[in-house]
Each structure stands twice: as C-alpha cells, then as structure tokens.
C-alpha cells in the first residue's frame, strides 16, 4: 500500500473497499464488532454513553487491527475489532472488475446502489423462485446484499408482512409493498449514516429492544411487539398488523416435495388419520421429520381409501353384469367366534352350521398324570 493513492471508497451491501491505484484493493467486512475510526472525526459518537460524550477520542483506539497513515499526518484511519469477527481481504483485480470478483460476485444486488437491478419485477421473480420464509430469503446475502436482522424486521413491519410466510405465496400487491418498504428503509438508514436517533418515530426499530420485559414491548399506540425465531434469528413482529396470508413454516416444509398424494391429502377432510402437531419445545429438525411422516401417513391412508372405493365400484359393476356372481357374493357369511363348517345344499347354495365341539373324556389316571406336568409355563391339572 505504501506510496499508492486512494482513488475512491465504495460499498456493496455489508462489504466496502478502498479503490486504489493499480490492481491491489483492500476489501473489508465489519462483521458484528468491526468499525472504522478516523483520527480527525469521531465516527462512533452516537454509540457513546452520555457520560463520555464530551471526552476526546482515544488514539490510537483500543482493539485496532491496522492503522492507515496518510500523507497528511493530521489524519489516520484505524480498523478496530474487539472480537476479531471482521474480515479484510486484499483482492487483485482491476477496480472496475471488483464486483465481478470473489467475495463480491457471490452477493446479490444492493437496494441502495442497485435500484436499476433490484426492481419490483426482479423481486417478484426472486420470491416466486424460492420456498423459504421471506425473512430467511432477505437475510441471505446471496439473494440481496446489505439487509441485516433489524433491517429485515423493519421492512416486513412497514410492508405488513409476516416473516414466517413462504416467499412464493405473496400477491403482486404484497410484493409491491415489500419492495417499497425495502427501498425506503435502506435508503433512510444509509442517508442518516445509521444514526438511529434520526430514524422516524414510527419505525419499529425504536421500540423492539425490550424483549422479555413485561408491559414494555409495545408501540406508542399500545400494539404489542412479539419476538419469535425465523431462520435462526430473533424476529420482532406486531401480530395485529403482520398477518399470515399464506403458508408458513411448519405448514409445508419438505412435505411439499414428498409426493403429490401428500399435498392432495392435506385438503382431504375425510381422512381418518389424526394430524400430528409438533410440541412447541420440540427441535425444528425432529418436528420437520415428524411432519413429513405425518403427511406420508395421511397420503397413504387417502390412497388406500381410493383403492377400496375403486374395488367396491368394480365389484358392483361386475355383480350387475353377472347375476350369478352377485348371488355368490351375497351368500358369503362372515365367520363368528364359534367354529363353523360350510355345506352345500342340493340347489347349489352354501349354508353354515356350528361345528360340534369335541368333548374330551379323561380317566382318573390321566387326570392325575396331567396334574404333575407343566404346559406353557403354567400348572395344568384342572379338570374341565
């Protein structure tokens, strides 16, 4: 880096880089705990505690990983990260080709800088092509760059969409609302440099942090805020406004791909197989397996019913066509608990009559001898 000029600073989603002279460019990702600090500008002033607001910035800052010294000694740039979750890469490429190079090329379009790509039509096609909860799709940087956990919750709240609902189930009107909220939230947050004190008072982000605190998890108008897990992340929603209008996680899952019969059987109200409801404390993997097994069982039961119905109909048709067969079927009598024998009368019809039970007559010697033996683990010798 020595002696090179910084030509520009650019960003895509959660990645940013310094565009340098030549083909060597540092590409960075702050992760959960990384930050960039300038010696002559306190970039994290709004993170400070009230008691520390007027204190001068410490330099060099704690947890710095590298310091970039500029030609003007009055300024330096420090990359800090107390937990080493951030990443720095030196990428060899032409500046104009950086976004077509790893790791940037593996990421989707950015709502702030790629508005010509991330259009409403593009978003609708992306949502329809996936079968995942909409929030999980939004958090996946391979789909859309730059949307984090609270940003996704804010977008879904503004669009009045439930985060668990599957991406392919939304109407065009809902997708339009989602696209508008995405552009507004991301544009506003970047416009005020992520200073949450400048966010609109109507944003959910201002009130979502009191998880588990009774009577505090509410909006100013009294609407309750509920927290749940979606895609492995905690999600804040307002149930009164964010309704489920389509299939959600647990309704379909992998059972969509199990079989067509399983899908058909979901709508079969005549099924006698009791439907499985996962326990709330059951692991997601186990619940998913049980749901799939449940769908297969319902499908097989429905298929069995259809088979029996088809056979009965075929038998009925055969009986109508052949009176002799019909008469023969009517003559069949289900066996009773008593042993029965079948006899054929002179006219060819079958009748049944109980078979006489044989009575065993035992001598006194036989009874005495039997009393001394064991049969099937039990003492015998009782005289009937």
TrEMBL record:
Q: Which GO terms describe its molecular function?
A: damaged DNA binding; DNA-(apurinic or apyrimidinic site) endonuclease activity; lyase activity; oxidized purine nucleobase lesion DNA N-glycosylase activity; zinc ion binding
Domain Formamidopyrimidine-DNA glycosylase catalytic, residue spans: 1-86
Its family? Belongs to the FPG family.
Instruction: List the Pfam families.
Output: Fapy_DNA_glyco, H2TH
Q: Keywords assigned by UniProt?
A: DNA damage, DNA repair, DNA-binding, Glycosidase, Hydrolase, Lyase, Multifunctional enzyme
| Comp. bias regions, Acidic residues | 257-270
Q: Which GO terms describe its cellular component?
A: nucleus
Q: Which reaction does it catalyse?
A: Hydrolysis of DNA containing ring-opened 7-methylguanine residues, releasing 2,6-diamino-4-hydroxy-5-(N-methyl)formamidopyrimidine
Reply yes or no: does the keyword Hydrolase apply: yes
Q: Which domain of life is it from?
A: Eukaryota
- Per UniProt, the ranges with Polar residues bias are 342-351
What biological-process GO terms show up in the record? base-excision repair
Instruction: Please note every region of biased composition (Basic and acidic residues).
Output: 357-373
Name it: Formamidopyrimidine-DNA glycosylase catalytic domain-containing protein
Q: InterPro entries given for it?
A: FPG_cat (IPR012319), FPG_N (IPR035937), H2TH_FPG (IPR015886), Ribosomal_uS13-like_H2TH (IPR010979)
Q: Where is this region: Disordered?
A: 245-278, 302-384
């Amino acid at each position: 880096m020595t002696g090179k000029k910084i030509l520009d600073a650019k960003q895509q989603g959660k990645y940013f880089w310094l565009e340098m002279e030549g083909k060597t460019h540092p590409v960075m990702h702050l992760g959960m705990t990384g930050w960039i600090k300038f010696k002559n500008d306190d970039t994290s002033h709004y993170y400070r505690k009230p008691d520390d607001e007027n204190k001068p910035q410490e330099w060099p800052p704690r947890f710095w990983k590298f310091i970039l010294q500029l030609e003007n000694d009055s300024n330096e740039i420090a990359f800090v990260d107390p937990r080493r979750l951030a990443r720095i890469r030196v990428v060899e490429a032409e500046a104009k080709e950086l976004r077509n190079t790893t790791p940037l090329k593996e990421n989707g379009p950015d709502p702030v800088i790629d508005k010509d790509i991330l259009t409403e039509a593009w978003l609708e096609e992306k949502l329809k092509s996936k079968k995942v909860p909409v929030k999980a799709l939004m958090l996946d940087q391979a789909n859309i760059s730059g949307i984090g956990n609270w940003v996704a919750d804010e977008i879904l709240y503004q669009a009045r969409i439930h985060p668990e609902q599957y991406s392919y189930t939304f109407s065009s009107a809902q997708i339009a609302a989602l696209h508008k909220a995405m552009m507004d939230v991301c544009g506003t947050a970047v416009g005020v440099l992520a200073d949450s004190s400048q966010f609109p008072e109507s944003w959910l982000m201002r009130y979502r942090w009191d998880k588990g605190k009774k009577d505090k998890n509410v909006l100013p108008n009294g609407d309750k805020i509920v927290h749940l897990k979606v895609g492995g992340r905690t999600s804040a929603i307002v149930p009164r406004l964010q309704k489920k209008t389509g299939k959600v996680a647990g309704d379909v899952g992998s059972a969509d791909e199990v079989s067509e019969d399983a899908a058909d059987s979901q709508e079969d109200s005549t099924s006698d197989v009791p439907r499985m409801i996962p326990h709330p404390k059951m692991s997601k993997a186990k619940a998913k397996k049980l749901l799939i097994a449940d769908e297969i069982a319902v499908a097989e039961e429905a298929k069995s019913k259809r088979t029996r119905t088809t056979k009965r109909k075929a038998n009925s048709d055969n009986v109508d066509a052949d009176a002799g067969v019909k008469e023969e079927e009517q003559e069949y009598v289900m066996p009773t608990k008593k042993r029965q024998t079948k006899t054929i009368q002179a006219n060819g019809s079958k009748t049944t009559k109980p078979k006489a039970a044989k009575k065993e007559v035992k001598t006194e010697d036989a009874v005495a001898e039997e009393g001394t033996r064991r049969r099937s683990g039990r003492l015998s010798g009782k005289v009937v």
